[in-house]
Structure formats: C-alpha cells, structure tokens
C-alpha cells in the first residue's frame, strides 16, 4: 500500500480508502439500495482493510441514518487512534427547516451527532457533502474553522462541488484567513470522466487532494455487465451513476482483455487505472461481501504500462466540449492550450 500527502496538508492517507456505505443492519434504510453487511461483516471488512495497509475510513452522517458511523466506531474500537476517520454533513435525517445544509446551526449540531455515533472525540477529516446554495460560504467556513480550533475536527474537506465552487470556497477561505479545504471527494471512473474537465484542473491548481467515490460505477466496471449479460447487482435496483452503455461495454471489453493478460480481475484493472491517474490521491472501495473487498484491495498491487493506460484512456475518452475543442496556439516554440495538461 502506498501513502500520499493529502493536498496541501501534512496528512498522509492510503491510496485506497474503505467506504462504509454498506455498513447497515439487514433491515436498515440502505439495505435494499446498496446492500447491508451487519456488524460482524463490517468489523471483518475493517480488519481486512487495516491488514492491507488502509489507514482511512469514509462514512457520512446520512449513511443508513447514522448506523454506518455507529458500526464503523464499533469496528475500529481501540484501533481508532491508529486510523483516520472521514465523515460528512449536509444531508438531513429529519424534516425540520434548519436540518439540511451547512449553516452554523447545522454544522454544530451534526458534528456532535457524528462524534457520539463514532464513539470518538475528534474527526480527522470533516467533509461538506454538497454545495449549500442557501448558506453563505463565509458562515460555513467560519463554523468549520471553529471546530478545528476546538479540536473536534483536524482537517476539512468538500464533496460533490463543481470546479467554480471549489475555487470560490478556497478563495473565500484565503480571504477570511480560516481553515482551507484540503480535499475534494468526487465521482470518477472509466465510464465517468467528467471531472477531468474542470474539477481535476481546479484541485491540482489549488493544491487539494482527492478521494474518488464509486470508482467501479456501482458495479458496472466489475466485469459482470457486458453486452451479453447486464448483470443483476446494485444497478438493477439503482441505476446510478448514469453510464453511456455502448461506450461502457467497449470499456469493459478492454478491461477484460488487460485483466486476462495480467491474471487479474476486471475490477482490479479499473481501480488500478484510477490509481495511475494524475490528481488522484485515494480511491474509495466498498463492498457488500468479503470476497469483493479482498479483490478490490489487490488493485494496489497492479501496475499498468503506458501502453495499457493509453488503451484505456482512448476507449473511455470524453467527447470534446467548449472550450476544450479550441485549437492549440503556438507562440514561437511554446505551445499554449486552453486546457491544463
């Protein structure tokens, strides 16, 4: 397992993160949506992740209405001091007019709830789960800054922000002199490369780290979805994130070819592609079954050649969009492009 510096912070995180969205009771709110592990299997998955070198675990207040945080806290137990916990706030578990979002009131309330459920007195990475269009960034940043000063939070991150929102949040933090976000958690996969347009350039320019969610596109890149058989996993009940199926099947075929040559699984190659991409700090892997997690963790040992990366890049390429399709201009012997390399 490799460890990477998280953005402009001094924190180092494993290149694989264990995601805990499936940590739920069999009759819980997420059981039918993404599956449910129960406490025994959740603890087993944490054990396997730590044995593989994973040092960071991702959850959220809204996952299974708080049960995910509770299960993670139990699973870590006395090992909590040697690991990193990342959780999130924004979404609500109730219907009050002040429950949703990242107001000072919501932040101060939700952090206390997460701390209690996790059984800890501090959160290593506290992430804003979405951009709040109704609360001024100044209010959100000052409240998060207070949590850091109080010792309840070590670092702050953001999730699901657009490129301009990331840039604005960083600029406002610099202007106010508050804590800056050190990371962005975003969707990225071989069938979902849209963040390469604005988000990756933004975080690389501003010095933020990245956590990648749904790297297998909710199982589409697991190998069981092909033109001949579209599988019956999570996507059968919850077809998200959206996938352009025809191009997606081409990508799966290419993954299968490389996987066969390397005696690896399709999922391992899809994850390894992300681990080789510039701007990726850590990839979040989760599972409903122990065998799935064991397979995913082995992706850290996969090495892809430049030719294999180019093959995967080509089959999964985005269609150019403005201003990306503008020509490259030449000034003397220097090339000027509209896009970051």
TrEMBL record:
Residue stretches making up the NADP-dependent oxidoreductase domain = 15-316
Q: Which domain of life is it from?
A: Bacteria
Kindly state which keywords UniProt assigns to this record, in alphabetical order: Oxidoreductase
Q: Which Pfam families match?
A: Aldo_ket_red
- Would I find Ubl conjugation among this entry's keywords? no
Query: EC number(s) per UniProt?
Result: 1.1.1.-
Query: What sort of enzyme, by top EC class, is this?
Result: oxidoreductase
Q: Which InterPro entries match?
A: AKR, AKR_Detox_Biosynth, Aldo/ket_reductase_CS, NAD(P)_OxRdtase_dom_sf, NADP_OxRdtase_dom
What is a single molecular function from GO for this protein?
oxidoreductase activity
List the protein's name.
Aldo-keto reductase IolS
- Source organism: Sulfitobacter dubius
């Amino acid at each position: 397992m490799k460890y990477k510096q998280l953005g402009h912070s001094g924190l180092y995180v494993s290149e694989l993160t264990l995601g805990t969205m499936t940590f739920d009771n069999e009759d819980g709110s997420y059981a039918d949506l993404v599956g449910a592990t129960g406490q025994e299997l959740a603890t087993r998955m944490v054990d396997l992740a730590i044995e593989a070198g994973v040092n960071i675990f991702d959850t959220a207040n809204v996952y299974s209405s708080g049960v995910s945080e509770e299960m993670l806290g139990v699973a870590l137990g006395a090992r909590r001091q040697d690991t990193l916990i990342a959780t999130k706030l924004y979404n609500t578990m109730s219907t009050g007019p002040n429950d949703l979002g990242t107001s000072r009131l919501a932040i101060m309330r939700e952090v206390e709830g997460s701390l209690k459920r996790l059984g800890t007195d501090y959160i290593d990475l506290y992430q804003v789960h979405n951009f709040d269009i109704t609360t001024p960034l100044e209010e959100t940043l000052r409240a998060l800054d207070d949590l850091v000063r109080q010792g309840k939070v070590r670092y702050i991150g953001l999730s699901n922000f657009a490129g301009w929102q990331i840039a604005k949040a960083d600029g406002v933090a610099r202007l106010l002199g508050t804590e800056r976000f050190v990371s962005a958690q975003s969707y990225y996969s071989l069938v979902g490369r849209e963040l390469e347009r604005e988000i990756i350039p933004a975080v690389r320019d501003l010095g933020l780290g990245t956590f990648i969610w749904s790297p297998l596109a909710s199982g589409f890149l697991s190998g069981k979805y092909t033109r001949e058989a579209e599988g019956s996993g999570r996507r059968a009940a919850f077809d998200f994130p959206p996938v352009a199926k025809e191009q997606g099947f081409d990508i799966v075929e290419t993954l299968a070819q490389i996987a066969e040559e390397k005696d690896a699984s399709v999922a391992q190659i899809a994850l390894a592609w992300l681990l080789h991409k510039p701007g990726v700090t850590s990839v979040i892997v989760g599972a409903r079954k122990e065998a799935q997690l064991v397979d995913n963790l082995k992706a850290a040992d996969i090495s892809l050649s430049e030719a294999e990366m180019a093959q995967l890049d080509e089959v999964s390429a985005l269609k150019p969009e403005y201003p990306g399709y503008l020509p490259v201009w030449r000034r003397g012997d220097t090339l000027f492009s509209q896009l970051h390399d």
